[in-house]
Structures are given as C-alpha cells and as structure tokens.
C-alpha cells in the first residue's frame, strides 16, 4: 500500500488516472451424485474479486502504475511498474507487470470480459477439479518482476505491435515435477533459481478494413521459455496463437495454447515407463459475443484442455491422455452505467470423470 501512497503524492504534481472494478459471483455446482460433487472442487459459493489501478503521468516520457487486487489469494500487488516512453515504436517497462502472453491477458479483469469465468487455458479458482489437473496452461492474471521492451508500428489501415521481456519466471519443484502456481504468486517474489524466463508477443492488426460489416481483424503469436525448479534444470515452454475479429457488433475471438514441462529423471515417481521426460498441456477457446440491445449482452463459448504424459504415482487421473471440454452460454444485463448482472451456464465434459453443470450468477461494477 506504500506504493499507492507514493503514487498519490506524485499525483499532486501530475496527471492521475484511477480505475477499478468489483465482481461478486455465486457459483452453483449441480452434480449427478455425491462422489461427482466431491470431486468437482472449485471456488463454489459466493466470492468476490476486486482491483484498483492508479496510473500517474510523472513527466511527458515517464508514467508510474500500481494495481492492487483482491481475490481467492487475498490482497496482492498485481502491478507496480514504470513506463519510459521513448517513442510509440519503442518503450521500456520495468518493475512488476502483467506478462504479455496470449490475447486474454489484456482482458483478465472481470469488468473487461463478458463471461463470468476465464477461458479454460487461463482459469484459476473457478476451474472444476483444479487440484486434480494442477490448473491448465497458465492462470491469468500472471504478473511477474522484470523488464519489457514494447512498441507499435502503425500504417494507414494496419499496425504491428511487439513485446519482448525477461521476468523472474514461474516457480515449481523437481519433487512435484510441475509448476506450483501458488508458490509463483506468494508475497516472497524472489526468483527461486536466479535464471530469468524470456518471451515475447507479436500481433498484426487491420483496424480499418474496407467494408461496412467486417471492420477489424487481428492475429497474434506468443511464446515463453524458462526453468521452474530451484536448481534451474527443468524447463517449461509455452506457445500460443490468437485471433480476433469483429463483424458488425459481434466479436469473435479464439486462442490455441500449449505448455511443455520437463520432468525429473526419477522413474520411481511415475506410474509408467518414462520415455519422454516432459508432460504436454494444450488448450483452446473460441468465443462469440455482442449486444442484443443497450440493456442485454450475450455470449457463447467453447473451450477445452488436454493433458498428456506420464502420471505420478499418486495422481488421481486414470489415463495418460486426459481432456476436458466445456460449453458456455450466458447473458449480461445492464441496469445502469458501469453495472452488469452476469448469468452464465457451463457444461463440463471430462474424458476420465463424470460430467458437471455449473451456474454462475454475479454482479460486476467498474469505475
């Protein structure tokens, strides 16, 4: 909170922008039997997410940002960074910032997307059986300490945006043979293996297409590489492709993501004979949304996740190739400016477990 206080003091002599949101959600799980309900661990019941972001324009070429968020992981410093603006085509960001992977990282705040839950590749507490699968690809938001170089090259009807970065990286242990996302977001933000993770993102957008209906089209690619164990021997590699377009008032977006995670050479820790010392995670989502009128918005979404590779001896997953498909439909009611009532239904289909039905009802406000 001292960072916010300092930013407020700096704001007495500079331009200040304050924004935030609060999302209150009730998740109701409808299971076919008691065993299914017990296995369907998720952040059920009433829960809240909140965030406050402050941006201070210190000088013409320097700005400071601080964002505090609250959720299932208590209060956390989501962002504390400086941006040095040299030119539109070249900027430097350093501190703690959201790592630019995929397209959804720009919209992870509940006030910035129409669904009640995040796409499956980026889910956190609202994922069913999250402990069984250890989440999916990479939970959003994913803030980290580091430095980022970014910029945009603009033309008459198109633009090319880039970002390259070095950050502390995701943390885990050789004993578990996987990334530990709780450890990655604990308040002790030091790098566990002193080896930075590196990555980048490139997006190509056409923002003024010659048509009355099809006006915007964008494609992007992202990658990230690092080591997660304390000794810095076990790697992880992420890659993703994303697409966004707008047809009239309808938004259509989708992403393909993957993460390959190295596992240690410990044959006794796995149920199968280990030929390839890694596990493979793949995810996708495809979503369409738009307004029905000024008071109602709609969305439909199809997303999925696949986990393949050797299983640890204590894994509850019965097969070496397990997948999840989810089908989502919902509406958002807009009773007034800055306020929405979200109602989403989700059908979860598991290849190795019973199917689940989940209903989200929530209230979100932004300022």
Structure, described:
Helices cover 7% and strands 56% of the residues. The protein has a single domain (2-366), classed as Porin. The model has no long low-confidence stretch (mean pLDDT 91). The protein has helices spanning 2-11, 34-39, 130-133, 181-184, and strands at residues 15-30, 45-57, 62-71, 74-87, 90-98, 143-154, 158-167, 172-173, 178-179, 197-206, 214-227, 235-247, 250-262, 278-291, 296-308, 321-336, 339-350, 356-366. The chain is mainly beta and 367 residues long. The longest helix is centred in the first third of the chain and has 10 residues, at 2-11.
Radius of gyration: 21 Å
> Reading side by side through the largest sheet, how are the strands ordered?
1-2-3-4-5-6-7-10-11-12-13-14-15-16-17-18
Succession of helices and strands: HEHEEEEHEEEEHEEEEEEEEE
Please give the largest β-sheet. 16 strands, antiparallel, barrel
Structural class: mainly beta
How many DSSP-defined strands?
Answer: 18
CATH class: Mainly Beta
The number of distinct helices, counting runs of at least 4 residues, comes to 4
Mean pLDDT: 91
Range of helix content: under 10%
Q: Any low-confidence stretches, pLDDT <50, length ≥5?
A: none
Architecture per CATH nomenclature, i.e. the level-2 architecture = Beta Barrel
> Which descriptor suits the 3D outline?
globular
CATH topology: Porin
